[in-house]
Give the backbone structure.
Amino acid sequence: MSVTDRPAITPPMRAEFERQTLDARNVGEIVRPLSHWERITNITGVRRFFILVLLAALWQAYSVPLDNPLIFPTFTDTLDALWKGIVSGELPARTAVSIKVLLMGYAAGVAIAAVLTTFAVSTRIGTDLLSTLTAMFNPLPAIALLPLALLWFGLGNPSLIFVLIHSVLWPVSLNTHSGFLSVSETLRMAGNNYGLTGIRFVLRILVPAAFPSILTGLKIGWAFAWRTLIAAELVFGVSSGSGGLGWYIFENRNELEIANVFAGLFTVIIIGLLVESVVFRTLEARTVRKWGMQR
Amino acid sequence: MNDAGTATPLNEEPLLEVDDVTLQYKTKEHLVTATYRVSFRVHRGDRFVLLGPSGCGKSTLLKGVGGFLRPVEGRIRLNGKPVEKPGPDRMMVFQEFDQLLPWKTVMQNVMFPLLTSRRCSAREAADRARSYIEKVKLAEFQDVYPHMLSGGMKQRVAIARAMAMEPDILLMDEPFAALDALTRRKMQEELLQLWSDIRFTVLFVTHSIEEAIIIGNRILVLSPHPGQVKAELNSDHGHATAGDLAFLALQERIHRMLFAESVEDMKVRT
């Protein structure tokens, strides 16, 4: 059936009208405050804490009947070992050693990434260099470079810092660069319009505009660095004198102090959580969330 | 506001001279000639409108004046000096709402170009920013971040930001095109009000004939593919006279100019 064959549909004629709107007070609730329960469950921290409590309860419920401290110590035993480790000062000392190395490697990695991406965003050859390097090295596990690093830099912190830089540099560069590329043409033109060029343009327009991506890069870089460090210490931790957290875990396994091993792992997790939920979350709340660039 | 064109003697040096400008840009596959030998002159106090259908190179022309694009032929001169690169003497207001820096408040956004161009001290910048924010009626929003503003408010901030620089010429690239009809009308009125208060020079790009007649005192009509000058017309209409006979006649005249070919097509068919 072609269009012209279709029966003509005509809408019916209706009378016009105008009317007063009703008094809104009769409508009932227009704005209602949320109940206490709704408000409490809206707090992300509360919900996450609840999950943690649930996990701890499950752990305890599994390990108590198992009753095998050599394989799987109970939650309370682990807490006890953690507490003793902290009070004796050994765990904080080990953690400090790890964190110090970690921060040095992280800072160096981020600094090199900043130079590399600035170069990449200002020249075409820089872009090619960055893309090629990240494509080559990003998939390469940092740990795989450790034997080589030990050969070049010997036993000790320089080797650890070398692998840390490797683990931080590529994800941070990759994210920062893709962040720079996604900055809208309008913002770029606005920046140029004010006479901003070169490094001032990068710092005052590109970096803040790409901040969500940069932050993601920093987070991924942090996680990679932390992971790499613990793994490297597990293997070569004795190198750096007193040894870090990874070495603490390794030593205690050798001495069959499994509760201490768990306490060491616990510390790793707690620091990870703290950095994620305090440092990065605060940074997010103060920047990208406040600016409406991220929910 | 009708007296602007006649009050200024014509022998005065033009502010902006565009002579036989051909602009080209490259896409992935093509080299596009956006405008071909376009010439026009903008005088101080002009509300000069570049009008034409899409593809007539009016935005490209504005970018050329802004210094974002070098002409392959011809010259663009501002105050007698050739335009070579973007600079704060020609402030752009874009169509897109994302032209504001999202990491800065309204106040900081308006102050930013003042500070980066080192035109004035922080204190002066704050004072000047405050007075221009007041002029666009956003005083109570000065500490708000752009994501909390409506589209019309964002455009007002962009206008305040550009005007606070007190540039030689204000370049506006369809600044109201992304707004709803009611807001657009209001913004047009406000722009005209600001013009009669401060008397700046504006080069305004639009594809709406009505907007061109309302905003402009001088209208450059461009034909598409590539953009060439079809006419340069005067207009002394505002919202008050919109819809009267002279207004409609001008609108009809421009419409016929731009769509002459399609009108002829219709005549042949009937």
